[in-house]
Amino acid sequence: MGRSPLREQRPWTDGLRLRGRTRRTHRAGRTRLAYLAVMVVALAGALQIAPSAATFTSAGTNTSNSFSADTVTPPSGLSASTTCVPALTPTYRASSTNNPASSGTSITLTTPTTSIGDYLIAVVMLETSGHTMTTPSGWTLLQTQSNSDMVVAAYAMATPASPAASYTFTWTGSVYSTGILAAYSGTSAVQTSGSQSNGNSITATAPSVTATSTPATLLTLLNHDVDDTPDSTPAGMTNRDGVDDVSGYNYDYMTLSDQTLAATGATGTRSGNNTNGYSGISVGISIVLSGTTGNGPSLTPTYRASRTNAPSTSSSSIALNTPLTSVGDYLVALVVVLDPSAGRTLSTPSGWTFVQSNTTGSMLVGTYVMATPASPAASYTFSWTGGSSYRMGILASYSGVSGVQTSASQSNGNSVTVTAPSVTASSVPATLLTVFNHDVFGYWDNTPAGMTSRKNLEDMDGGYQVLGLFDQTISATGATGTRSAANSDSDSGTSVGISILLTGNSNTTDSAALTWTATPYTSATGYEVIRDGSTTTSVSGRTTTTWTDTTTSGGAHSYTLSAVLATWRSVTISTSISACP
């Protein structure tokens, strides 16, 4: 068959050109595929910056750079625990008085038992007018009031770390005088005060003042020219001390009373009537002390007061009346059961913690502690099994105590000397209590070197034993050393010595401690804590797993926590705390 004249004949080279174009097209396709593969690998590498678990969010101005994929693991297990420093109500601790036998231009008042965290309140009365009082260094004049028969001034000072043994108050012109110097624990400041002069009457009155916050305590001072007889205690108040001007001409009598304030507002006036019905002019002063509300100085355990009991009959229990005490104190009970040969066993009352006991053939001595509750009982009863015995006991209160750090006891053979063992102080502030019970015919033991005697008690009915309580501030950690003393009458007998170390209150601020499990993301540089959605704190170090908020002020707060990488934050975890009671 012949070729069609209409069909163009292609040269033999056309096929070669066609095949060349086909090879170039295939190479270009393979190049594009290889480029896409490289991009995929690069993107996959970028996504491997961190293991997948949580989403980064911008911490600052880099919002446009936010990752949209999960890229970091947050911390876990966030929890919070609170430390609440108890709110303390100003509470009378102790006082001293003076009424010099001659006129002069000054009066010296002995410093009563006191400690950092207390306030000292001094009241000075001059029995005639026209004198100018001088405020001693370190003291603040609160009120001065006068009439034709007297000048009365009140001063305050926060107890310093090393208070003087006494303080002297001066004035112009020689005159007879009296004074009271009182210590109040749990006091942060003087909130307000007022004074007034009263005309001739059997009634002395102190003015109303306004309390702006609680806890608080109202002090009322009445000085009455009434022939050296005291006024009655104002309704609802407790009388703390009094002093009469027995050497002067006007025969004034001054009293100090106080009352806890339950609410803010006007306190109302406080009045007392002369107990003998005498009339005279007077001055009344009102002072409101503010308590502490979660913040204050580090406190050393300090003796406040004590009560004793040595019944004249035998029994299987002993009741000890509660001494002056307040929230923030610890009560320390010392119980002695005489002649425990029948196998007496002490029982621990509800709410109390057993500390130490030891025995000899003639005595069983036990010690207990309890943090003072908001409403302490009027007395506490300690009992034992095994039958009736003669017994005696001391119940003491110590302020500024957070707990018992350590304790130990030992029995001692027949000797003039009684010894309590050494214990080891692991922290300060602290106070060492030494307890001696000695079978020595009713004569007290001497005070161990460096210590202060707080209370002694003798059992004249059951065996003539003596029980003593002594204490000493511990200024450094380590072994306290033994404490020993000889009997004051050089009598010999068996004895028990007990050492108890009370820990002071170094938690001076309400706080919240946060703990968590570290993020496993090893490139994290730390964490960010946000309180209540606004206050931000940075915590350095991936392995750090704790942080303490010391600015809670006792309130309720919420917290969120996230891991940090440069300007980025992981998703948050959260927790919260309730307000301190």
Strand percent estimate: over 45%
User: If you compute it from the alpha carbons, what radius of gyration comes out, rounded to the nearest whole angstrom?
Assistant: 39 Å
The domain tally reads: 3
The separation of the N and C termini measures 116 Å
Structural class determined from secondary elements: mainly beta
Largest sheet geometry: 6 strands, antiparallel
Low-confidence stretches: 1-70
- Write down how many β-strands occur, each being a DSSP E stretch of 2 or more residues: 43
Overall shape: it is flat
Please explain how this structure is put together.
By secondary structure, the protein is mainly beta. Residues 1-70 have low confidence and may be disordered. The strands form 12 sheets. Strands 1, 38, 39, 41, 42 and 43 form a 6-stranded antiparallel sheet that branches. A 5-stranded antiparallel sheet has the order 3-10-5-8-7, with no helix packed on it. It has a 5-stranded antiparallel sheet with strand order 11-19-14-16-15, with no helix packed on it. It folds into 3 domains: 57-84 and 510-577, Immunoglobulins (Immunoglobulin-like); 91-291, no CATH class; 302-504, no CATH class. The longest helix has 33 residues, at 14-46. It starts with 13 loop residues before the first helix and ends with a strand. It contains 1 helix and 43 strands.
